[in-house]
């Protein structure tokens, strides 16, 4: 695990230092890296990150001192760990002498574990990174990925291996590296699995030279961009990974913002502004073009050619829907609810004044009027933390049998809290639903209160 480094790593478009986590973030999405490291926008922490931090601290103490302070998750992998001892390099810094560099830029960070006990006899060095995950079978990397710097896990491990190659005096006779991810399962069965890739030093040097060094040159160029819009974005899995990108709204509606709903209405002075709920719903639904997470980067302006509308339950006195050609390849399913939309005196914002709430589930609107799309992730984390604190537990998902949240009761408690304190009116993105049980519970509780609900269809 890489340690926290609070000094700014990018200043005035010039990269001062790098980390392996920065390489991974840039590989996943250059624009997300730009938001985080160049514009230095804050990123929310999650309960899963807290579990990983605690687990790493336990492992570090145990391997350094031999004192068994391992919690339930880390203890499941105790049989896969080397015997503690002073010869193990635990939380080894990358910026030692000499530091790891690429493109002339030094790296900072820490390697969880370096074991040189086979070096003298076999010329083998093992580098281990601890991974806490909810599902080992689904999330574990393969040995092939650990050896390939074009993959996220491989980029990390090749970076650590490249550091070892630079330590010629410390590791004499090094000819082979064992790159290991040691996984600890945090949900369901207590389980730990080791994934190991053995690679010669020549392979590591080649991967670093041909894949990582060119990426660092790209990062230098991206760091000098004047606007986020000038940095490429990887629309697709990167938008939904790890519970959803925290910069989604800024990425989609910042400097490439299309004409707002208010502007569209004001540009038609000869037409009356729609005043009924149904009219506003129809106007709103015609604006966004739904972009599934695995679709290519959208054009600046699109109009819903890939959306199909599912009619809401019939209600007495409801005006008929406007005619619309049948789509040929639906990309999203749209559901509308009227209960959350009410008329009142306005403040000049036709959408917000009517209390319209829109929820996009595993899909992305390329335009949504005057309201900027906002990720639901921070709201989910806030509500989960609030329920956890009320029950006196660190993480509601891991509440014990003696807790009021035990045996899955946390789901009902979270749903109740969400219904009592929903997010304010706006346009929200719920991404990565299949990978977050917290997000699933929150979306299920909130869905009836949204005026427009759009689900991505794969």
* First-residue to last-residue Cα separation: 34 Å
> In terms of per-residue confidence, which ranges show pLDDT below 50 for 5 or more consecutive residues?
1-8, 255-330, 338-354
* Multimeric organization: single chain
* Number of self-contained structural domains: 2
How are the secondary structure elements laid out?
Layout: E1 10-11, E2 14-15, H1 20-28, H2 30-38, H3 47-65, H4 72-75, E3 89-93, E4 101-102, E5 105-106, E6 110-115, H5 119-122, E7 124-133, H6 136-139, H7 143-146, H8 152-166, E8 176-185, E9 192-200, H9 201-223, H10 237-240, H11 248-253, H12 261-266, H13 277-286, E10 290-291, E11 307-310, E12 332-336, E13 358-361, E14 364-365, E15 374-375, H14 377-391, H15 410-420, E16 427-430, H16 437-446, E17 452-456
Parallel strand pairs: 7-8, 11-12, 13-16, 13-17, 15-16
Antiparallel strand pairs: 1-2, 3-6, 4-5, 6-7, 8-9, 10-14, 12-17
Care to give the gist of this entry?
This protein is α/β, with parallel strands linked by helices. It contains 16 helices and 17 strands. Strand 1 and strand 2 form a beta hairpin.
């Amino acid at each position: 695990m890489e340690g926290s480094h609070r000094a700014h790593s990018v200043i005035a478009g010039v990269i001062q230092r790098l980390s392996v986590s920065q390489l991974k973030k840039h590989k996943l999405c250059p624009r997300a890296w730009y938001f985080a490291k160049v514009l230095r926008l804050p990123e929310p922490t999650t309960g899963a990150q807290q579990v990983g931090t605690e687990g790493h601290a336990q492992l570090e103490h145990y391997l350094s001192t031999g004192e068994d302070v391992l919690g339930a998750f880390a203890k499941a992998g105790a049989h896969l760990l080397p015997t503690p001892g002073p010869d193990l390099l635990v939380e080894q810094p990358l910026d030692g002498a000499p530091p790891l560099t690429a493109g002339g830029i030094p790296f900072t960070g820490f390697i969880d574990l370096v074991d040189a006990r086979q070096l003298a006899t076999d010329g083998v060095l093992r580098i281990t990174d601890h991974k806490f995950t909810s599902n080992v079978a689904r999330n574990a990397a393969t040995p092939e990925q650990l050896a390939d710097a074009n993959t996220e896990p491989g980029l990390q491990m090749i970076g650590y291996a490249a550091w070892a190659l630079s330590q010629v005096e410390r590791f004499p006779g090094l000819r082979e590296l064992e790159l290991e991810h040691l996984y600890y399962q945090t949900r369901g069965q207590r389980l730990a699995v080791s994934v190991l890739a053995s690679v010669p030093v020549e392979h590591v040097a080649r991967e670093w030279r041909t894949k990582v060094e060119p990426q660092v040159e790209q990062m230098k160029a991206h760091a000098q961009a004047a606007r986020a819009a000038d940095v490429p974005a990887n629309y697709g899995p990167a938008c939904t990974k790890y519970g959803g990108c925290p910069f989604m709204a800024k990425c989609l509606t910042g400097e490439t913002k299309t004409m707002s709903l208010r502007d569209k209405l004001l540009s038609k002075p000869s037409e009356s502004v729609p005043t009924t709920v149904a009219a506003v719903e129809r106007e709103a639904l015609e604006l966004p073009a739904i972009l599934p997470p695995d679709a290519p980067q959208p054009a600046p302006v699109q109009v819903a050619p890939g959306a199909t509308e599912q009619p809401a339950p019939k209600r007495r006195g409801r005006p008929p829907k406007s005619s619309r050609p049948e789509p040929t390849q639906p990309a999203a399913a749209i559901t509308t609810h009227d209960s959350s939309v009410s008329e009142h005196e306005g403040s000049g914002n036709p959408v917000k004044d009517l209390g319209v709430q829109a929820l996009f589930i595993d899909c992305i609107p390329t335009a949504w009027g005057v309201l900027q799309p906002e990720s639901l992730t921070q709201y989910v984390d806030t509500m989960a933390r609030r329920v956890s604190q009320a029950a006196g537990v660190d993480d509601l998902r891991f509440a014990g049998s003696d807790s009021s949240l035990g045996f899955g009761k946390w789901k009902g408690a979270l749903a109740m809290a969400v219904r009592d304190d929903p997010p304010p009116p706006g346009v929200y993105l719920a991404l990565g639903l299949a990978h977050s049980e917290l997000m699933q519970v929150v979306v299920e509780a909130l869905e009836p209160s949204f005026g427009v609900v759009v689900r991505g269809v794969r």
